[in-house]
Design brief:
2 strands, 1% strand, mainly alpha, two-stranded antiparallel ribbon, Serine Threonine Protein Phosphatase 5, Tetratricopeptide repeat, 2 domains
């Protein structure tokens, strides 16, 4: 029995290997979010297993196994700030689990990362940590090869999806061949992970010589070959992402690592020239790759002599939000979003609006100039700046705790780099490599936001630096030959608790799978199957407002279909259910403006069954604009609802407000012109149609027709 449990507690390092190998690679195309959701669930799942075996290990040892570190207080401070912000959150479920579709960043994810940090420093030694880094490299190598194939038009993802089974990129809407993202979901996310890990490949080019207390360089090129190859492949993939923030992070880490390490070896001239040779090997390859592939700021050699149509139309070929895919407008949009984040912070200065609630709070403080950008009707669920995101959602306390954790981590890396350690002569170079990689995370987070793989590095880089910086004690041989009854009870209780938590995570994942299926079935018009899947999803996760929202939409579509078939009684029954479902969704997440937008859509759709529901549409939109006072699209829809209800004066005022918010809103001018036509105010109507033709679209046929009719 004792041998069995000893074998079980030694599984902890292997769980960390599994964590870092699987999280970057895992994705599943049938869940509502293909990448982040599955990575977050995998992290939760493995964290529970680690905690369970860690508890068993302590029970057998009859002592607390917990290694104190310099980051304990900063991490606890951070967790306290996140907990307090969650308690006062405008949407507590979102604060606990993260915004639905992003998932990372909620309180539960932060707790998981903290546990993984303490678990690593308490259970892994020097050798196991080095193996862990090799596992990380192996996983990233697979993702990088995946990405390189994508660049040349062949995605393993498309081959794995049963619906496609084609070795091309046809399964993706985004132009993945132009900006690769492999198993990560977005180019910037892959780039952030690559940039953070490339410096570690440099660090492994060095080794210690304990005899003369000096760190020497692996001058035999065969010994540095693995690091050179990995670094080159990872850098190639980074260039293929065309991520400005990722490449900028790489440049800063490059400057930090090579300049500081050069200073170290300059003190010892007998090895400095060896350092120069290694430096030249790595960086000559980088220069060659930059010349062959190019960067977002510099063309490659081929395009310099033979510009391709693809290069010239790069901005057009990339699809997706400007803040995520890059482009000339991204900087302008980013400043506007940041301004809104600062305004939220000013109005909720202490604890913010709640962890990960930016998607809800931004609407209320969204700058009006956002309406004049190309992403004017896009939902921003992040501030696209991790620091401002913490300021807006967790207030000054959350931001200070986050910055404190960062500064404490940097100090830990610096101490590891500058302190001579008798047990590990090469500890400083590991500390420098981790510091360089960690710096890239700080930079990419400044221009974006953290995702699950990057968050793991943010929290566990310092844990790895600690275990590599000194000799750690291996799992001891316990003197007890038998486990007592009380120990057995504690072990069984631990296993039982782990099973409950694993079952909860399983339900959480399966509910999303059902929800995604229900949504897809509804979009395809298979309403019976859609209802079956959505009701099953709600059975597993009844507090998820987006499930009720989708159920309301599908049920409403069924009601409309029945009404068109003149099945009035059944249509009324489904109509009542749809109304009840959307009200339930709003009650579960009252701060979510989009639910009120959906409610308006449901009501206007159902007005085919019951015309008076146009009044409910109006009221839902009126409530929505209170929470989103600068959203031009909501005001336009409200103005149109006033037209439908015959409230012309309110329609005119609302449409004028819409135009104030978005001066190039063609539909608002056109609707306002039609209202004036109905009221017999021809001159004012002409002004609206003429404005469209002069300032928005000279070829607008509808505006021309209305203007011609007015001139008859």
């Amino acid at each position: 029995m004792m041998r069995i449990f000893k074998a079980e507690i030694k599984i902890i390092p292997y769980l960390y290997y599994l964590l870092f190998f699987s999280v970057p690679l895992v994705f599943y195309h049938k869940t509502s979010e293909v990448f982040e959701f599955n990575k977050m669930v995998t992290t939760y799942f493995i964290t529970i297993l680690i905690v369970s075996f860690w508890i068993i290990k302590m029970v057998i040892a009859k002592k607390i196994i917990f290694r104190r570190t310099a980051l304990d207080i900063p991490i606890l401070f951070f967790l306290v700030s996140q907990t307090l912000s969650t308690l006062i959150s405008v949407d507590q479920r979102t604060s606990l689990l993260g915004y639905y579709s992003r998932f990372n960043g909620g309180l539960f994810s932060s707790i998981s990362y903290a546990i993984l940090y303490w678990g690593l420093v308490s259970n892994l030694d020097f050798g196991q940590t080095k193996k862990l880094i090799k596992v990380i490299f192996a996983s990233l190598l697979i993702s990088s090869i995946w990405a390189v194939f994508e660049h040349f038009g062949h995605s393993f993802s498309c081959y794995l999806f049963p619906e496609y089974r084609t070795f091309d990129v046809s399964c993706w809407v985004q132009d993945v061949a132009w900006r690769v993202y492999s198993t990560f979901g977005q180019p910037n996310w892959l780039a952030a992970y690559l940039a953070a890990l490339i410096p570690l490949t440099w660090g492994f080019a060095f080794k210690s010589n304990s005899k003369d207390q000096m760190v020497k360089i692996r001058t035999k090129y065969l010994k540095i070959l693995p690091g050179v190859l990995l670094s080159s492949i990872f850098f190639t993939t980074l260039l293929f992402t065309k991520s400005r923030s990722g490449i900028l992070g790489f440049l800063v880490s490059w400057l930090l690592f090579w300049s500081v390490s050069g200073i170290f070896w300059l003190k010892s001239r007998n090895v400095f020239f060896d350092f120069i040779s290694v430096f030249l090997v790595f960086n000559t390859l980088f220069l060659i790759l930059i010349a062959l592939i190019g960067t977002p700021w510099t063309p490659n050699l081929k395009s310099m002599f033979q510009p391709s149509e693809k290069t010239q139309q790069a901005a057009i070929s990339v699809s997706g939000p400007a803040l995520e895919v890059g482009g000339t407008a991204s900087g302008v949009i980013r400043k506007i979003v940041w301004k809104g984040a600062v305004d939220i912070w000013k109005n909720y200065p202490i604890l913010g609006t709640g962890v990960e609630t930016f998607a809800f709070s931004y609407y209320n403080y969204r700058p009006a100039e956002h309406n004049l950008t190309s992403e004017w009707d896009y939902l921003y669920n992040k501030a696209h700046n991790e620091y401002l995101n913490y300021a807006a959602t967790t207030g000054t306390l959350g931001l200070i705790s986050y910055l404190t954790l960062i500064l404490a981590t940097i100090f830990l890396f610096l101490k590891s780099s500058l302190t001579k350690n008798e047990g590990r002569q090469d500890s400083w170079v590991y500390g420098l490599a981790f510091l360089s990689g960690y710096t890239t995370i700080l930079i990419t987070n400044f221009f974006g936001f953290s995702v699950v793989p990057v968050a793991l590095l943010f929290f566990l880089f310092p844990a790895m630096a600690i275990t590599l910086g000194r000799e750690t004690v291996r799992v001891e041989e316990y003197k007890s030959k038998e486990i007592s009854s009380s120990q057995k009870i504690l072990i069984i209780f631990s296993c039982f608790l782990a099973l409950i938590l694993l079952y909860s995570i399983g339900k959480y994942w399966y509910a999303d799978l059902l929800y995604a299926d229900g949504k897809n079935q509804g979009d395809a018009g298979n309403y019976a199957k859609s209802l079956e899947s959505l009701n099953a999803a709600i059975k597993f996760s009844p507090k998820e407002s987006v499930y009720w929202e989708e159920l309301a939409t599908t049920t409403g579509d069924i009601a409309v279909g029945l009404s068109q078939q003149e099945n009035t009684e059944l249509a009324n029954s489904y109509m009542a259910k749809a109304i009840d479902y959307i009200k339930t969704a709003i009650s579960l997440s009252p701060a979510n403006v989009n639910l009120k937008r959906t409610a308006a859509n449901v009501y206007i759709n159902l007005s085919v069954v019951e015309p008076n529901l146009i009044l409910a549409t109006r009221d839902a939109l009126a409530e929505a604009v209170k929470q989103a006072p600068t959203d031009a699209k909501l005001f336009y829809n409200l103005g149109y609802a006033y037209i439908r209800t015959g409230e012309s004066d309110k329609a005119i005022d609302t449409l004028k407000k819409t135009i104030e918010l978005k001066s190039d809103y063609r539909n608002a001018y056109y609707a306002l012109g039609l209202v004036y036509v109905d009221l017999g105010k021809k001159d004012k109507a002409k002004e609206q149609f003429e404005y469209i033709l002069k300032n928005i679209n000279p070829g607008d046929s509808d505006a021309k027709t209305e203007l011609e009719n007015l001139n008859l």
